[in-house]
Every structure is written in structure tokens, then in C-alpha cells.
Amino acid sequence: MVLRKPGPILVNGLIRLEYRGYDSAGISTIEKNGISLIKDKGRVKNLESQAGLKELEGTIGIAHTRWATHGKPSKENSHPHMDNSKTFSVVHNGIIENFEALRERLKGYGYKFYSDTDTETIPNLIHHYYKKGGIENFLKAVHDACMDLKGSFAIEVICSDFPDNMIVVRKDSPLVIGKAEGENYLSSDIPAILSFTRNFYLLNDYEFAVLSRDNIDFYSKDLEPIEKEVQAIEWNAVGADKNGYEDYMLKEIYEQATSTRETVGARFQTGKQTSFDELNFTKEYLSSLNRIYIVACGTAMHAGLAGKIAIEKLSKIPTEVDIASEFRYRDPLVDEKTLCIFLTQSGETADTIAALKLSKEKGAKTLAISNVIGSSITREADLTIYTHAGPEIAVASTKAYTSQVVLMNVLAIYMAEVLENNDQKYLDSLKQDILDLPEKVEETLKVSESLKGFARQVFQEKDVFYLGRGVDYAIATEGCLKLKEISYIHSESYAGGELKHGTIALIEKGITVVGVLTDKELIKKTVSNLQEVITRGAKTLIITSDKDLDTSSFDVVLTIPETNSFISPVISVIPLQLFAYYVAKEKGLDVDKPRNLAKSVTVE
Ligand code: M6R
Questions:
Q1: How far apart are CA 196 and CA 361, in angstroms?
Q2: Distance between CA 338 and CA 290 in Å, rounded?
Q3: How far is the CA of 603 from the centre of ligand 1 (A)?
Q4: Residue 352 alpha carbon, nearest atom of ligand 1
């Protein structure tokens, strides 16, 4: 078998992982004369032009693209980090919370530090524990170092004494191992190595793996050998490619007819109850619940806002939506009679995972809704449902959001059917509306393209406001986040009735206000609020499904297909996603990798 050179493989993997962080990048391989180290601040493509990259011969290598936590983006702070003797090279995701104490301890032993990072303590700590000898000594040193670490970590370590091996371990940070023919791969996410294999091992916290080209040995926290089962992943590499689109975000927006169809799958069948093989809810269990919490961050939390409306209305169980980072520290009222639902695309968001652990400790049943098979949260939760939206690469979440909203609606209908507290004909009509979504998504994508022109009028503005009521407020909030994260325009969303309690002071001539008008019960109310901003000189973009609405006073009106208000977010968010995209493109920005952000927020 011809051994492949590591440089291009590592760089290519980093390009695919760059959505997770892109402040700086670097790679290390084991060469004949020791460990190589090539790194710099900036994007991964800078690495390709670095001297020596093409000449690398070693067939074991590690690489990293960074989202800075400790220390600014700079060459010194980039990973990999080596120990003082240059025997070990390490890449690390996560945060070492006790790094300052460890640094002081290591300085006391004579170690010197050349970066501001928490990570640099790790190779030096490994070196401190290392006694030359067999591979078991290398493993023992990595193990002993990890036992000193507090915080979260996924670590890959290479050692110049073992040119054919690598050791990896994780705690609270993602790590997958891909098994291929005569080659093994490691990554913090599946897409980076999907073109090499579909067979993966997933490590649990404090499990160690010793890899060589054609073998992987697994060890427990006590360094006892353990067996792990290989898992086959259904995604294909095309799903993780741009597939001819200019950006991942645009591709993912346009995939929403397919992704929402995949989310529903075969759960609705004529004349049958909605099927959720993953759940075992009984009427007694659901009737015993005192409350449901939906806990999430960012866009997933916005999907929770839409999901709450359907779950609460159909199941009549009090349902609250909470921001994971708040929930985990506010001693929430959770007990055995609470169902806690955790929504997360990546399944790796640190705050959401911590909130789940807390709910479990308090005795609640925990249900994870994730898009990533085998992600950390799915291994912690009592129950898991997958959204099956396919890989989402762009930092700005789009198709994961619509799939989450669809899935929450399917779940709400399922619970209502188990509880038998709704008219079945009504529930059947809701199911039909969900089945009709893909066609309506296609139609909405077409009409929304007309917003390109309006984006050209808005892209130089400093502030944009979003208004809606009820479910339309939830959508306004998501549309607003899309605009700020990729176009860097300051935007705020308000419940229509709330505007006059302060924020209207900011409305002046020429300011853009986006109104979402789909909830029949509330359209007139929001129109009145929009009249208030028009009177004060605002220009308005209206997204509405009401074909009979008098729209003469608005500047731009986009009419979208009508559906029931529970799932209207799936339709009405599309023009807002595209609007944000067009504005960001007009500004010449990198929509897939907006500044300061990362796709998976695996740190607190
Ligand atoms: O992977 P998660 O769904 O848990 O991620 C949560 C948020 O970090 C995420 O939705 C973020 O807000 C997106 N960048 C929004 O587009």
C-alpha cells in the first residue's frame, strides 16, 4: 500500500473543519529528524504556502484550527503546542480551567512557557510524567497528565519516540475516530474525514485510544483495555460539500425542502398514530408531567420558542423555553415530573450539555434533539431524536433550524395523540400541513430571491429592527440573529406591542423595519405597530402570508405561502435567511465564517 503524505490530507481536513474556528491553524508530523511544527495565525489557506509543508514525509500527523479562548490569535498561541524538549506535540479543543496553577507548578520544575494558552501546559505535563520505555509509558504519561487537568478537552498527542503512534483522549469535548483500510483518522467532527471512511468510533469521557496506521486500542479511565463498537454513519461526502453553490450557507438554505422532508421521514402514516420509536411516552407519563422545559442556545433556542407554542397548545402541558447558559445556573424548578428537552444542532454545545446533566441530577427525564449522530449530548440524554437535516457546515444555522421546528411540531402532535386530548381531524390537518411543507419551501425560495434588490438598499445601514407577535415574534428574533451574525449590522427584534415601551425612541427617518405577518389572529395588531414606525419615517419590508392584506403603506412586500401558524416559521424564516445572506454578500463578507464565531461552541 502506498503511504500518503500527511500535509495535503491534514490541510484538507482543516479546511473542512474551519467552520469550527479560524483564528489560526497549524500542523505537526513525525519526521525522520523529529517532530515538525508549521503554524501561523489566520486562515487555513495561509498554511498551504508555508515553507516545508509539501516536503513533510511522516505518516502520522496532527492539525488544528483555532477559535481563541486564552491568548489572542498569533503564531505563538496557535496549535500544535510542544513541550520544552520537543518530544511531544499536542492539539487540544476545550478549556483547561486550572492551567494557571499547572503552569506555576511546571515552572517550579523548570519548564518555560512561550504562549498565553492553557494548552501549552499539556505537552509539558506529559513530558513531566514520561519515562522512556514502551508505548505503555507514553500512554501512562498522557493518562497521568489528563488526571491533573480540570475543564474540557479533546487531545491528540504525538511523541518523537513513537513515530507510528498517536494517543487521544477526550472529556466534554467532541472527538471521533475514523477507521479506514490501512489508515486511521481523528477529528472533532465527522465531515472532515467523511471522504476517507464512514466507520467511526466514538470515545466517552476519559477513554483513551492508541492509534497506529492499521490498529486502534482502547483503554478505560483506569487504563484497562476495552472494546468499542464501530458505528457506520449514513451521511455521504457530497452532503458535506458545497455542491456547486457559492457558499455552504446558500446551499443549506436551498436544501430546506429536502431536509424538512427527511426530518418527518415516515413518522406520519395515514390512519396511524404518529410514530416515535425513540420515545416510549404513555398517556399516564405525559399526564403526570408538571412542566416541560425546552433548553438550548442561539438559533436552536429560537426553534424552541416556536416549538413551545405547538407543544403547549396541543398537549396543554406548561412549557418554558430557557437559554442553556442561564438555566444551568438558576436552580430551575426541575424534578421527576419534568420533561427537559435539549435542542442542539451539533449536540456539542457546552452550556446545553451542562444544562442536561443538571436536569438529570434533579431527576428529570431528558430528551436530546440533535442533528449529529453520536454527538456528546445524545450519549448523555435518556432519550434522543435526530433531526436528520444532514451536515450543516455554515456557522449561521438555517436548515437545522427549520428541521428543529418541524420536529418539535411532529413531537407536539405525537404527544397530543398519546394524550388523546385533541380532535383527531384537527391533528390530521396539522399533519397534512407538515407533509405539504417541502413544496411551499420551494415556492418561498423562489419568491425570496426578489429580496436581493432590497438588500442592496440596506447593506450600508447601521441598525435594522424586526417586529412580530406570537409565533411571528419568534421568527423575527431568528431573522434578526441571522442578519447580525453574518452582516455585522446591529439589529433588534421586538414583540410588536413592546416597541412603544422604549425602543420606538430609536426609530427615525430611513431606518429599516422588517415586519413578519403570518399569524391571522395577530396580523392587524402588528400592522398597527408598523404604522407607528412608518409615521416616524421608517422604511418597511413585510413578510406575509395574508394575500388580502392592504399593503399599500409598506415599501417592500413579500408574499409567502400560507400554512398553519405552528409551522409557519419554516416558511417565513426563509426570506429572512436569504435577506441576511444577500446583505452580507453585498458587503463582501465571508458568510460561512463570520468573525468571532464558531460553529460548535464547545466551551462555556
Ligand atoms: O449546535 P447548537 O444548535 O447547540 O448551537 C447553538 C448556537 O450556538 C447556534 O445556533 C448559533 O446561535 C448559530 N450560529 C446561529 O446561527
A1: 39
A2: 6
A3: 13
A4: 4
Q: Measuring CA to CA, how many Å separate 417 from each of 276, 279, 313, 420, 599?
A: 12, 13, 13, 5, 36
Specify the ligand 1 atom closest to the Cα of 398.
16
Q: How far is the CA of 596 from the centre of ligand 1 (A)?
A: 13
Same fold across 6-238 and 446-592: no
pLDDT, tens digit, 9 for 90 and up, residues 518-554: 999 999 999 999 999 999 999 999 999 999 999 999 9
pTM: 0.78
**Shortest-distance atom of ligand 1 to CA 396:** 16
In angstroms, what is the span from residue 347 Cα to ligand 1's centroid?
10
Dihedral class, residue 316 (left if φ above 0, else alpha if ψ from -120 to 50, else beta)? left
Residue 599 CA to ligand 1 center (angstroms) comes to: 7
Assess whether the C-beta atom of 396 lies below 6 angstroms from ligand 1. Answer: yes
12: amino acid identity, one letter? N
pLDDT band at 236 (very low <50, low <70, confident <90, very high): low
DSSP string of 508-547, one letter each residue? -TT-EEEEEE--TTTHHHHHHHHHHHHHTT-EEEEEE--T
- Cα 178 to Cα 332: distance, rounded to the nearest angstrom: 39
pLDDT over 60 at 124, yes or no: yes
299 in contact with ligand 1, CB cutoff 6 A? yes
Q: Is the CB of 300 under 6 A from ligand 1?
A: yes
498 CA to centre of ligand 1 in angstroms: 26
Name the residue with the closest Cα to ligand 1, atom 4: 344
Task: For the beta carbon of residue 398, count every other beta carbon within 10 angstroms.
Answer: 30
- Which atom number of ligand 1 is nearest to the Cα of residue 349? 4
242-435 — its CATH code? 3.40.50.10490
Query: Where in the chain are the domains?
Result: 6-238, 242-435, 446-592
- Residue 240: per-residue pLDDT: 66
pLDDT single digits (tens) 456-466: 999 999 999 99
Task: Spell out the residues 6+ positions from residue 272 whose beta carbon is closer than 8 angstroms to its own.
Answer: none
Fold of 6-238: Glutamine Phosphoribosylpyrophosphate, subunit 1, domain 1 (3.60.20)
Q: What is the pLDDT of residues 69-115, one digit of tens each?
A: 777 888 889 999 999 999 999 999 888 999 999 999 999 999 999 99
For domain 446-592, the question of CATH label 3.40.50.10490 is answered with: yes
